[in-house]
Design brief:
Strand 7 and strand 8 form a beta hairpin. Strands 6, 7, 8, 9, 10 and 11 form a 6-stranded antiparallel sheet that branches. The longest helix has 23 residues. This protein is an alpha+beta fold. The chain folds into 2 domains: about 70 residues, 2-Layer Sandwich (Phosphorylase Kinase, domain 1), CATH 3.30.200.20; about 130 residues, 2-Layer Sandwich (D-amino Acid Aminotransferase, Chain A, domain 1).
Length: about 220
């Protein structure tokens, strides 16, 4: 997980600024990985702009600096949605599938908190007043559209979107996409076998995280 710092906008309290740092928390260790914050900022800027082009509502406003993005000052929902297009280790074990095998339809999971055991159900969210049913429908609708848009984006580049994690917030009564598009939320695999490939699910060292971050950054960087 990449460490981010939130600031109130010095010019207008209607906005907040999110600073992406070079500090990464991996396996309960803090790693300093040069340029990770800048590259994640650029990734997020690109994909927020891309999503906006498909009329997906976001809290994103603009890029303020090399490591800073500007958002409307939204109220965040305290959970995130993980979208799986391929079977992860848990799903593969439960349903007797081969890990990374393609799913017929995307699976939408809700996660609350940090750590390994964060999976919860939609009824948990509603029972504990973390989200109401109507907002949940909108969140799932936005998640589904975003997943379809990004699957197509990566498919055209000969890559597979295996997993996508997204967070949401509310601004002026409307649901919007928030968070970021970091190497820890985007799980991409090449269509063709690559023995040198480092699986994003198994990143643990600074070198592995740096390599995967650069891979994603190269996809969105102008040639």
């Amino acid at each position: 997980m990449l460490e981010t710092i939130y600031h109130s906008s010095p010019m207008d309290e209607k906005y907040i600024q999110v600073e992406y740092t070079d500090t990464v928390l991996a396996d309960k260790k803090k790693l300093k990985i040069k340029d990770t914050g800048q590259k994640t900022c650029e990734l997020s800027h690109f994909f927020f702009e891309y999503a906006t082009g498909f009329q997906i509502p976001t809290a994103y406003v603009k890029k303020d600096d090399n490591t800073v993005l500007k958002f409307v000052n939204h109220k965040p929902f305290p959970f995130y949605v993980k979208i799986l297009n391929r079977a992860d280790k848990r799903i593969a074990k439960i349903f007797g599938l081969k890990e990374h095998s393609e799913l017929k339809l995307p699976v939408f999971e809700f996660h609350y908190g940090e750590g390994k055991d964060t999976l919860i159900s939609e009824s948990h969210l509603i029972s504990f007043d973390l989200c109401n049913p109507e907002d949940m429908k909108i969140i799932l609708r936005i998640s589904s559209k975003l997943n379809a848009v990004l699957k197509s984006f990566f498919d055209r580049r000969n890559e597979i979107l295996s997993q996508l994690s997204c967070t949401f917030g509310k601004f002026e009564g409307k649901i919007c996409l928030t968070g970021d598009f970091s190497p820890f939320g985007l799980k991409i695999y090449p269509k063709e076998e690559n023995k040198k490939w480092t699986e994003p699910e198994k990143m643990s060292t600074a070198a592995e995280i740096k390599k995967y971050t650069e891979f994603l950054h190269n996809i969105v960087s102008p040639k």
